[in-house]
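Researcher: Structure prediction, please.
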Amino acid sequence: NTGWESRVVSESTTEVEIRGPKASFVEDLMPNMALIRRRVRDYSLRFEGLRIGQRSKTDVVMAYIEGLVNDGILHEVKTRLQKIKTDSVLASNYIEEFIEDSKYSIFPKMERTERPDKASAAILEGRIVIMVDGTPFVAIAPAVFWNFLQSPTDYYEKYIMGSFWRLIRLLAMFLAISSSSIYVLLTSFHQEMLPTSLALKIAADRQGVPFPAVMEAIIMEILLEAMNEAGLRLPKALGQTVSIVGTLVIGQAAVQAGLVGPVLVIAVATGAIASYAIPSFAMSGAIRLLRFPVLFCSSLFGIFGFLGAIIFITLYLMSLRSFGAPFYSPISPFIKED
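Model: Predicted structure follows.
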């Protein structure tokens, strides 16, 4: 792969961490393989390549440690890669969609990263890293639910602090799904669960609001997602301005105009901030999408609808697999040692 210009190894822009190396993968396979080889100097480290895409003929490389990787999973990944029939592969997400389990599930079953230290740690854990020429993001298989709550910083902190931050992220995931739903079920069905003074305050704030609580929540959630999308697509300076204007000016104006209650704005903002605490962008997107069905169930059946939705999501996660590995392990099936 010589004869054309390539980007030099630089700092990661999407996975910014406080500690650890700053290098990130680039669009060329050879430097990426060198970044992994530099960190994993094991004679059993293997780079196995193949070419996918009838027209693009894209080079794809699997990196793993022979003897440490699960042979059954390795064979399954290799078989699925060889079965891909497509004209072109331009990024690693093409590969993910072709080979992952449960293609129509919104939950990601493969990790993705542009950090060599995270990819190297995955290889040393017995997993497989799939690198695609032309993209700085690599895919990691298999992946379980708890991998998406890990951050590369966890590898550089004491285990007590790392475990604490993972618990915080798990709590943030729950808040991201449920904050708006809890507001709706408490204000519409179960006012008796609130302290009297708080219930009276919320009722007074909602006087004159023309919409039911569920409509308020849906309007604010859609507006939040629209502002989030606008902030991502605009240039950096404008994106920050839109975020500030959207969160402060529009939220405050909506409350003063009597369109929504101030407590709802707090609930929606809490869910938004909590969703950003999830290290994986793919998992964060799935969690943000789940807010809407949980919100609908809570608006129809109150706390029973909310609990039913959460239980259904949990059972669904238990049913998923990533290349044969149970997605919710080691909780289900329960493995005490892990």
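Model: The longest strand covers residues 45-52.
Researcher: Thanks, that helps.
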